[in-house]
Amino acid sequence: MIGYVTLGTNDLPQATAYYDELFKSIGVGRSMEEENYFVAWSPAIEEAGMAITKPFNKEPATAGNGTMVAVFLKTPEQVNAFHKKALELGGTDEGKPGFRPENADKGFYAGYFRDLDGNKLNAFCMVE
Questions:
Q1: What is the pLDDT of residues 106-116, one digit of tens each?
Q2: Is the dihedral angle over the CA atoms 96, 85, 114, 32 positive or is it negative?
Q3: Which pairing describes strands 92-99 and 107-114: parallel, antiparallel, or unpaired?
Q4: For residue 63, how many other CB atoms are within 10 A of its CB?
């Protein structure tokens, strides 16, 4: 149902470098871009993706309070690696990878982080 999600940035080159490396860690590359305006990544153009852009209204980009982008992965190991990579690239931790609720041993497994512009993301998988 979701085609893509867009996050704002105040430093497009820096944000592009961050997401190029982060998404490369799961085998995803750029799917669209317009120089000096936006870049999008997705596994394929017909699959859901994520983009970053300078705001159209020329106002500063801000992280949305309560807004979050979730990246679906297949295993807890992939979630752990993606979360670790996000932090290595300069992101900040918003919740270490693990089950939610914490005492569970199956179900929703996620790690939360913020990118360089303060946008909140998570990497998650479902464990049976």
A1: 999 999 999 99
A2: negative
A3: antiparallel
A4: 15
pLDDT given for residue 65 in this prediction: 87
Q: Which pair of structure tokens corresponds to residue 69? A: 């982008």
Tell me how far apart the alpha carbons of residues 85 and 45 are, in angstroms, rounded to a whole number: 24
CA distance 93 to 88: 10
Relative to beta strand 49-53, strand 4-8 is: parallel
Cβ proximity of 47 and 4 under 8 Å? no
Q: Which residues of 11-21 are buried (b: 16+ CB within 10 A; e: fewer)?
A: ebeebbebbee
Q: Which residue has the tokens 């970053």?
A: 52
* 76-88 vs 12-24: helix crossing angle, rounded to 10: 150
Q: What are phi and psi of 96, to 5 degrees?
A: -60, 155
Give the pTM: 0.91
Q: What is the CATH number of domain 4-56+67-127?
A: 3.10.180.10
Of 39, 61, 62, 63, which Cα lies nearest the Cα of 52?
39
